[in-house]
Amino acid sequence: MASFNSVAVIGGGAYGTALACAAMRAGRDVVLYARSSEAVEQMLATRRNPKLPGASIDQNIDITADILAAARADIILLATPAQNLRDAAMALGPHLKSATPVVACAKGIERGTRKFMTEIVSDTAPHAVPGILSGPSFADDVARGLPTAVTLAAADETIAAGLAKALGSATFRPYHSTDLRGVEIGGAAKNVLAIATGIVSGRGLGASAAAALVTRGFAELVRFGRKFGARPETLTGLSGLGDLVLTCSSAQSRNYSLGLLLGQGMTSEDAQKATKLAEGAFTASVLADIAKDHNVDMPIVVAVSAVLDGTISVDDAIGSLMTRPFRAE
Fold first, then answer.
1. 10 Å Cβ neighbour count for 53?
2. What phi and psi, each to the nearest 5 degrees, are found at residue 72?
3. H helices of 176-278, where?
4. Which class for 322: exposed (0-12), middle (13-18), buried (19 or more C-beta within 10 A)?
5. For 59-99, what is each residue's pLDDT tens digit?
6. Is residue 109 left, alpha or beta, with left meaning phi > 0 and alpha meaning psi from -120 to 50?
7. Total-model pTM
8. Cβ atoms of 102 and 70 closer than 8 Å
């Protein structure tokens, strides 16, 4: 098994910083890369990230804007937003050692290309080993060392297990898998469904409606996953059902918060400005288009996409879902 002693986290946002803290607790040598020199200087001076208030950055974590320093690590964690992952991987790719694991930690599908995160890694860093890390894990919880479990997938089971062992600690538990697509689908779809759940809450439709929405939304996630060969245990595991439950139940989720504002009557444009980087807002239309092209019935995802695009009102979207033909479960 390869030696995984050092970890570089690409992305100086809240989740990237949290993952750097988790890797440090696992006993790894950690580099946290941020593109902005100003952000690096601020974090070096304060050992804190303003995007993650309340969490300190261990003195042993090397914070840098030098991509070459990050590229030398044994494991790369790409913790940029999904729509920025290609640029980050392209900058990193030429400097990587052959067969370096590059683990995407974003949850989404790239607009335009309709590619999943590990496909982007393969495109931009063909000599790397693509991986995906996903699951119910708010950045603040991970950074503070609160108990968290996720799924980490790579095509080779030995590598996946080695990565999970290298990053795991008493408070951060990765379960390894070889089902990359299943893990990616769970992470992408649950963000869109969390927007729908937020809309239901913002509209004051009650706990019963929210429970129905999450259940039927999960059915859509499973249908989509099966179409692309995802394993049932992945879809019902941490990166599928587990992450869906977390994201659909807390205002800590940017996607849920976006839906909440939409349900309360805010326009799509204003709600997206207010929440910033709600990945589901970028994924919804792509997911709906892929589902249509592959004849996968995803009415909730389609409704969310239409609300975000401004082609249908929240009330009309709810009405269309409630008046669908009766059918067996």
1. 9
2. -80, -10
3. 180-202, 207-227, 232-235, 243-247, 254-263, 268-275
4. exposed
5. 999 999 999 999 999 999 999 999 999 999 999 999 999 99
6. beta
7. 0.95
8. no
Report how many helices (DSSP H) and strands (DSSP E) the chain contains, helices first.
16, 8
224-266: pLDDT as tens digits:
999 999 999 999 999 999 999 999 989 999 999 999 999 999 9
Question: pLDDT tens, 158-211?
Answer: 999 999 999 999 999 999 999 999 999 999 999 999 999 999 999 999 999 999
Active site residue 107: no
Give the SS3 label for residue 77: strand
Q: Which residue has the tokens 């949850």?
A: 107
End-to-end C-alpha distance for the chain, whole angstroms: 46
71 in helix, strand or coil? Answer: helix
Catalytic residue among 97, 107, 115, 190: 190
Cα–Cα distance for residue pair 9/147, rounded to 1 Å: 20
d(CA 84, CA 9): 15
Contact 131, 99 (CB under 8 A): no
User: Rg of the Cα trace of the chain?
Assistant: 19
Amino acid letter for position 5: N
CA distance 72 to 69: 6
* Residue 40's pLDDT band (cuts 50, 70, 90): very high
At 101, is the secondary structure helix, strand, or coil? Answer: strand
